[in-house]
Fold this sequence. Notes:
The structure is a single chain. It contains five helices and ten strands. By secondary structure, the chain is an alpha+beta fold. It folds into two domains: about 1-50; about 55-165, Immunoglobulins (Immunoglobulin-like), CATH 2.60.40.10.
Amino acid sequence: MFYVIGGITVSVVAFFFTIKFLFELAARVVSFLQNEDRERRGDRTIYDYVRGNYLDPRSCKVSWDWKDPYEVGHSMAFRVHLFYKNGQPFPAHRPVGLRVHISHVELAVEIPVTQEVLQEPNSNVVKVAFTVRKAGRYEITVKLGGLNVAYSPYYKIFQPGIGSHYVAQGGLELLDSSNLPALAFQSVGITGVSQVTQPDYCSSYNKS
């Protein structure tokens, strides 16, 4: 009797998981047929879609090489980590249609960027580098195939560089406090010499 009850329980559990798998399979197939246009689908098949063997923007991640807030004027970068829907790394050397747009929120100033695929075995990372010249709040949008990556767009704040902001003023202060007295001293010295030499010249002329 115990073996009969156990066999029935196992059969019910197996039947439940089979039904669940079939529902998930049907949902993925319907989603693939309805939402995937030809450009985004490419060479992807229903089998790849069911297995999750395709690049999924929402499964990708972005890591930052700096901590907020950061000073302007420095070259900085962030990394886009590409993943399949099933969680496996997606090779970055394959064409993925990565689009990155960085702009100043208030001034609407666009920042040029460069993309670099890291030369590592089976690398799934694309490095994006840029340089910010104006302080403020920036919007960083990362898209794959027209879809936002993870939590894109991101918002980052860059503050004025303390060292570069006071370089010109520091130079003027140094000139006012130290160089100008030196120049004044030199001017006084030259005037004194001219005043001293003139009487000598006149006295020698009178003697002659």
